[in-house]
Specification:
The complex is a heterodimer of chains A (about 250) and B (about 170).
Chain A: H1 2-18, H2 20-24, E1 36-37, E2 43-46, E3 49-53, E4 57-62, E5 70-76, E6 81-87, E7 90-95, E8 98-103, E9 111-117, E10 122-123, E11 126-129, E12 132-139, E13 145-151, E14 159-166, E15 172-174, E16 178-182, E17 188-192, E18 200-205, E19 212-218, E20 221-226, E21 229-234, E22 242-248
Antiparallel strand pairs in A: 2-3, 3-4, 4-5, 6-7, 7-8, 8-9, 10-12, 11-12, 12-13, 13-14, 15-16, 16-17, 17-18, 19-20, 20-21, 21-22
Chain B: H1 2-14, E1 17-18, E2 25-33, E3 43-45, E4 53-59, E5 62-67, E6 71-76, E7 84-90, E8 97-100, E9 103-108, E10 111-116, E11 124-129, E12 147-148, E13 158-167, E14 171-172
Parallel strand pairs in B: 2-12
Antiparallel strand pairs in B: 1-14, 2-13, 3-7, 4-5, 5-6, 6-7, 8-9, 9-10, 10-11, 12-14
Classes of the chains: A mainly beta (about 250), B mainly beta (about 170).
C-alpha cells in the first residue's frame, strides 16, 4: 500500500512537471508556461531562453521579453544537426553521427558536456528521462534503422546499452512507464520501460492505417503527427494506447 | 579509415548526385519556387486543408501543426474526441514551431519570427530576426530513389516539389 502511494505521488509529481503549461493555459487564451514539442523539433524553450539548432550551430536567444527574442550566443556543435531536446536543464542535440549533450549552468552559453557517437551514422531524434536517453537512427542504406538506448547516469560518459532494429523508426516520446516510437507505416511501437536500460516491446499500435512521424505525450493524451494530419490517442493505460480521433485534410 | 570511407560514401549519397545520363522522358520532381514578393507576408486565415503535415507543438487546449513550407494549422483539442481546426497562419517556408507563454516561435524561411498568440483568434507577428535560422531549405525532394530537376538557387527558395514528366532530368537521389 505504502509503495502504491509513493508511486502515485511520484507519478503525480512527474505529470505535474511535464504539464507545467496545461493548468495555466486551459482557458481561452493560450497563455502561460512552456509548450510541448515533438522530438523532431529544431526549436525549444527553456526558462527564459529559446534554443534553436540549424545544420551546424546551436543558438541561444534571451526571451525575458518573450515577444522580442535577443540572440545571445552561437555555438558550433557539429554537422547535419536535426533535433534538440531538453531534460532538466540539459540539452540533447541529435545529429547524423552523434548525440551532443550540453549543460545550461550558464543558460546563455551552453557548454558541451559529452557526446555519444553512433557506430552507424543515421538520422535521429533523441529524448531523455532520468538517467537514460533513447534515440532513433534511420539507416541511409536499405531502409530500416535502430532504436538506441544510452545510459547517461554519468552524463560525462554516455554508454550504449544496445540497439533494437526497427523497420522505420522516427520520432519518439517517453513517460515513466513506456517509450513510444513512431515506426512509419507500421504504426507506433510501445516499449515497456520497467527496466529503462532493457526495453521490452509491449505492443505495436497499428489499429489505424497511417504513416507515423512524431508524437507528443501530455498526461493521458498522445498527439501524433502522421502523414495525413493528426491522430489523438488515449494513453491512460500507458502500455495500451487507444484511438480517440484524427484530423485529416 | 574504413569509417572515413563510409562517411564519404554517405555524404555522396546524401547530397544529390548529378548525372548526365540520357534517360529520356521519366517521372521527376520539379521545384516550385516561392514568390519573393509575398514571401514575408504572415497572416491568419480561415482553416486550410492539411496536405503536407509537419512538426507539432501543443500548449493548453491548442495544438499547432506546421504545414510544410506553408504555415501553421491552429487546432483546438479541448475535446480530444472532436479536435477542430480553427485557423491557419500563413508563413511561407515555415517548418518549426515552439511555444512559450503567449508566444509562438517559428521560422519564415531563414528568419526567426515570434507570433503573439494571446488572442488565438488574432495571431499577429511580434518580431522578426532576419537570417537567424540559416537552414538550407532542402534543395532536393524528400523522397529517395527518384529523379528531379536540379533546383536553381537564383530562382529563389523551393516551396515544394511537383511530380511531372521530364526529359533527361539532371538530378537524382
Amino acid at each position: 500500500m505504502k509503495t502504491t502511494i509513493i508511486a502515485l505521488i511520484i507519478s503525480l509529481l512527474t505529470l505535474q512537471a511535464c504539464e507545467k503549461s496545461a493548468d495555466s493555459a486551459v482557458n481561452t487564451s493560450a497563455s502561460g508556461g512552456t509548450g510541448a514539442n515533438g522530438s523532431l523539433t529544431r526549436f525549444i524553450t527553456y526558462n527564459n531562453y529559446l534554443y534553436i539548432v540549424d545544420l551546424q550551430n546551436l543558438k541561444s536567444f534571451d526571451i525575458s521579453n518573450p515577444g522580442i527574442p535577443v540572440l545571445k550566443q552561437t555555438t558550433s556543435v557539429g554537422f547535419n544537426i536535426e533535433t534538440i531536446f531538453e531534460y532538466q536543464g540539459t540539452l540533447f542535440i541529435g545529429s547524423n553521427n552523434a548525440i551532443f549533450i550540453y549543460g545550461l549552468s550558464n543558460p546563455e552559453k551552453p557548454n558541451r558536456i559529452s557526446q555519444f557517437n553512433y557506430f552507424i551514422p543515421g538520422r535521429d531524434p533523441v529524448v531523455a528521462i532520468d538517467s537514460v536517453a533513447y534515440s532513433t537512427t534511420k539507416n541511409f542504406f536499405g531502409g530500416g534503422g535502430n532504436l538506441n538506448t544510452v545510459n547517461i547516469k554519468n552524463i560525462n560518459n554516455p554508454i550504449s546499452m544496445g540497439a533494437i532494429n526497427m523497420a522505420s523508426p522516427n520520432g519518439l516520446a517517453v513517460n515513466q512507464r513506456a517509450l513510444y516510437v513512431c515506426n512509419g507505416n507500421n504504426g507506433i511501437s510501445i516499449f515497456d520501460r520497467s527496466n529503462p536500460y532493457n526495453l521490452v516491446l509491449s505492443q505495436e499500435f497499428d489499429a489505424i492505417n497511417e504513416n507515423f512521424f512524431d508524437l507528443i505525450v501530455r498526461g493521458n493524451l498522445m498527439i501524433c503527427y502522421v502523414e495525413s494530419g493528426i491522430v489523438l490517442l488515449d494513453v491512460s493505460n500507458p502500455l495500451q494506447p487507444n484511438y480517440i480521433s484524427s484530423i485529416k485534410n | 579509415m574504413k569509417y572515413l570511407l563510409l562517411l564519404f560514401l554517405v555524404a555522396c549519397l546524401w547530397s544529390c548526385t548529378k548525372e548526365s545520363n540520357k534517360i529520356g522522358e521519366v517521372d521527376a520532381y520539379v521545384p516550385v519556387y516561392a514568390d519573393p514578393t509575398t514571401l514575408k507576408i504572415i497572416i491568419q486565415q480561415s482553416p486550410q486543408p492539411i496536405t503536407a503535415g509537419g512538426k507539432i507543438a501543443a500548449i493548453g487546449n491548442y495544438l499547432f501543426q506546421v504545414e510544410t513550407n506553408q504555415g501553421i494549422h491552429v487546432i483546438d483539442i479541448s475535446n480530444p474526441a472532436n479536435p477542430r481546426k480553427i485557423s491557419f497562419v500563413r508563413i511561407p517556408l515555415c517548418n518549426e514551431a515552439t511555444i512559450r507563454g503567449n508566444f509562438l516561435y517559428s521560422n519564415n524561411g531563414s528568419d526567426l519570427i515570434s507570433l503573439n498568440i494571446t488572442n488565438i483568434n488574432n495571431i499577429i507577428l511580434s518580431s522578426r530576426i532576419i537570417n537567424a535560422f540559416p537552414i538550407t531549405q532542402a534543395q532536393y525532394p524528400s523522397k529517395t530513389g527518384i529523379y528531379f530537376e536540379c533546383a536553381d538557387i537564383n530562382k529563389g527558395m523551393v516551396l515544394r516539389w511537383e511530380l511531372k514528366k521530364v526529359n533527361n532530368p539532371k538530378c537524382r537521389r
